[in-house]
Structures are given as structure tokens and as C-alpha cells.
Amino acid sequence: MSDGEQVKKGKGTVFVKPEVCKGCSYCIDFCPAHCLEFSREFNRKGYHFPVLATPEDCTGCDLCGLYCPDFAIFGMRFKDMEQRRHAAAPEPLIPARG
Amino acid sequence: MNEPDVLACEFENPVMPYLRQERLPHIWCPGCGIGTTVNCFTRALTDSGMDLDKIAIVSGIGCTGRVAGYMNLDSFHTTHGRAIPFATGLKLANPELKVVVYSGDGDLSAIGGNHLIHAARRNMDLMVVCVNNFIYGMTGGQVAPTTPLGATGTTMPYGNFESPFNLPFLADACGAVYVARWTVYHVKQLAKAMLEGLKKKGFVFIEAMAPCPTLYSRRNRLGDGVDQLKYYKEKSKIVNGANTKDVGLTFQGEIVVGKFVDRERPTWLDAMNEHYTQHFGERFTPYGVSHAKE
């Protein structure tokens, strides 16, 4: 959830792209902190997407991101987010080419 | 509850740089496990630190065959069952490449079954990721060589009576140097196995069991994708180094997962170079040696 940083209770947060979610519930069922749940709203395709129900429990471990077959959710630790935000040149996510 | 905003993502999903984003969302069904194996593969690529220009991904036909189209690597979507021959050619024409074959159980073990066994026999330097969903997914749920006894498919409405392949045993018997099986539930272990496979020289075979909620689970009344993952969680037993003879799968029975084989054998190129150097001496220039030294 994009406004996770304002809440800033746990060690991390998740980011969800509701429009690409297909509602398979992998992230919800296998979150080690049990902090996700289905939203009450639908996305455009009619699926319920995950939302962070208990932000204070989220550790930003990114296991939801590893499970998600639709690349719709990922987690991040606040520590890494700060680092990424303040880094002069953000560290590339993928190894260099060529 | 705060409503998440679509556009407010300040950070990018770490998987995204590896994908051709203009082709997303992908065609895989809700609850299909193939996307999860792609996550594991991208994690392994990140952890390996390899130059992405030196990696090529080849896949055949089928649901898993779409992976080559979605990965932002040099990729090759080949004819049905012939992913391994194309990958062999790619590898031998440019021995510096690390070639990954990413395909499904039907493509690799049925239509391309002969190529699988012969590539393993020759110990061709390939990494083969076989996503096993027990059925032909894209064509409508026909029985595949991996469908367990008793399971139902569209071509076997009263249950399957053909003995299925035990893929790790097949790969091991043919001479693969690295054989592992993980399920989509074991994401961390699968990512680690893929990392080890990328680093390993020789024929690497990784079987990734994945749910097919639309055909396999629905026809056999096994629930949704997540129910299959719960079954994997409940019934899987990690036995590293298990005898591959004993790791056959039964319908909704116990699943033995783990790293079964990790050994050393000369690859096809190494064996060829050694043999001809012995035979011809100075007259023979070894081929692809810069890679062979690595």
C-alpha cells in the first residue's frame, strides 16, 4: 500500500497494483505475519485484491512478492526504502549488462 | 482501510526490470504457479550477479513456453518439444552463453522426450527448468506423461491408467549432473536451486511442481491454486540426496522434494575437446575453451 510510509508502524510495507491482481490469494494465505487480507472493493476485472490489514505486523520480507504469480504485490523494508530514496544514484535493481 | 492507489507506487517491483512490461498482464490463469517460478528465476538471476547479456532463455510450446516471451532476456520461443535442440545449437554456436531451457512437462517429456534424454546423456551444458503441472494446460487438459495414476483429464474421463514418468529418475538415469525437485510452495528453495543451476556446469534438471487450477485441479475437484499449494505444504517431505528411484509421484500422495543429485561429469564440449586433443594432438584447436576454463 502506497501510504504505508505514513503509517510507519511495522518494519516494512507492501505495494499493490490492484489492476494486475487476479485474486489467487497466495500472498494472503502464505504471508508469514498474516497481515494481508482481501479488499472489499473489486478491481476492474472483478477480483478482490490484497490490502495490508495490520500494517504494524508487516516486516517487508517480500515473500508475498516472491509468491505473487501476477507480479502485483511486493514488500519492502522501511530501511531499504529510505536508503533507496536518499541514495544519490539509486542502486540498479538488476545486474549490469554488457 | 486506506485504498491503494494504482499510480502511487514510488518503488518498482524488483521483478519488473526482468520482464517485458509491455506484454503484461500475462495470460496465465488466476492461481497458476508459473508466475511464481518466474519470480524465483528472477531472484536467482539477481543473486547470481551474472551478466544478463550472457544468458539466453529458450522455451517450447505451452503455458510455460510463454516464459521466454515475457522475460526481458535474449529469448527464443521454439517449436513444440524442440526447446532442447534449439538450446543445444545456441550453446554450441556460442559457448560463452548460459542457456536456460524453461518449459513444461508435456513439452519436455512427451513431445521432446527424446531430446531431454539425449541432452542429459551427452551432458550438454544447459539448465532445464521443467514446470510440471501434470496436464497439458494450453490445449485443454489432455493427459500428459506426468499425470498421476487415477487422475482425470479430458482424454481420460474415467481416470488415468498409464504409469507416469518419474522425471528426476529419468534425468538422473540419463546422466544429468544436477537434479532437484521443488514445488511452487517452496519458493526460497526453488530460487536457491535455480541459482545453483545457473552456477553449475553441465546438464541441470530442475522440476518445479505447479498447480493448474483451470484444468488439473478443476477436473479432479482439487479446489483452487491455493488449495494445491496447501497440499504441497502438507504432503511434501524434504529429502536431499534421496534416491531418485523412490521419488515417484502419486495422485495427491506424498511428494518428496529436495536436491537429489549433484555430481561432476565432463560436459559434451569438454569431452569432445579432450578426445580430439588426445587423438590429433597439436593439430586440433579446442573449441569454446574460454568458457571451459571458467
Helix content of chain B: 25-40%
Structural class of chain B: alpha/beta
Which class of secondary structure composition applies to the elements of chain A?
A: alpha+beta
Number of self-contained structural domains of chain B: 2
Shape of chain B: globular
Report strand order across the widest sheet of chain A. 1-4
Query: Sheet with the most strands of chain A?
Result: 2 strands, antiparallel
Note the run of SSEs of chain A as H and E. Answer: HEHEEHEH
Which CATH C-level class of the largest domain in chain B is it? Alpha Beta
SSE ordering of chain B: HEHEHEHHEEEHEHEHHEEHH
Per DSSP E runs of 2 or more residues, the count of β-strands of chain B stands at: 10
Q: Please report the total strand number of chain A as a whole number.
A: 4
**CATH homologous superfamily assignment of the largest domain in chain B:** Thiamin diphosphate (ThDP)-binding fold, Pyr/PP domains
Commentary on this structure:
The complex is a heterodimer of chains A (98) and B (294). Chain A has 98 residues and is of the alpha+beta class. Chain A has helices spanning 4-7, 26-30, 63-67, 78-86, and strands at 12-16, 36-38, 50-52, 73-77. Chain A has a single domain (4-81), classed as Alpha-Beta Plaits (2-Layer Sandwich), CATH 3.30.70. The termini of chain A are far apart. Chain B is an alpha/beta fold. Chain B folds into 2 domains: 31-263, Thiamin diphosphate (ThDP)-binding fold, Pyr/PP domains (Rossmann fold); 265-294, no CATH class. Chain B has an 8-stranded mixed β-sheet with strand order 2-1-3-4-8-7-10-9, with helices on both faces. In chain B, strands 5-6 form a two-stranded antiparallel sheet. In chain B, β7 (178-183), α7 and β8 form a beta-alpha-beta unit. In chain B, α1 (34-48) crosses α7, α4 (105-111) packs across α5 (113-122) and α5 (113-122) crosses α6 (167-174). The longest helix of chain B is centred in the N-terminal third of the chain and has 15 residues, at 34-48. Chain B is globular. Chain B starts with 33 loop residues before the first helix and ends with a helix. Classes of the chains: A alpha+beta (98), B alpha/beta (294). At the A-B interface, α2 and α3 of A face α1, α7 and α9 of B.
